[in-house]
Design a protein that fits this description.
This protein has about 110 residues and is α+β, with helices and mostly antiparallel strands. Helices cover about 55% and strands about 20% of the residues. Helix 2 packs across helix 3 (about 80-95).
């Protein structure tokens, strides 16, 4: 039990430190974001994922990765059809706070 707790604490510390390092790197590059911007981006990502699942008909949208940065939403991954690609892009554009959408979705290759 203690071993699992120690391992979890070490992983959490490692993640926290890696987050601090990447924040420092972003600040050095002139692209640092405030805590409010990070929170807004996370909320926007959640809203877009919800829209993809409900409005675009992608269900859980498990194969779609959504990233947001200052209102720009990027969609990456695979869906079943060209129609779903178009619907996903349109659903993302309709979300309040989205300024633009980079739709990089592709149709899943048939096996």
């Amino acid at each position: 039990m203690q071993t699992k707790l120690l391992a979890a604490a070490m992983m959490a510390a490692g993640l926290a430190l890696s987050g601090c390092a990447s924040h420092r790197d972003n600040a050095a590059a002139g692209s640092s974001r405030t805590a409010g911007e990070v929170t807004s981006d996370a909320a926007l990502t959640a809203k877009v994922k919800t829209a993809l699942a409900s409005d675009a008909g992608l269900g859980t949208a498990a194969d779609v990765n959504v990233q947001s940065y200052r209102g720009v939403v990027q969609l990456n991954g695979f869906v079943a059809s060209q129609d779903q690609i178009a619907r996903a892009g349109e659903a993302a554009r309709k979300v309040s706070g989205v300024t633009s959408v980079q739709n990089n979705l592709r149709v899943k290759p048939q096996s």
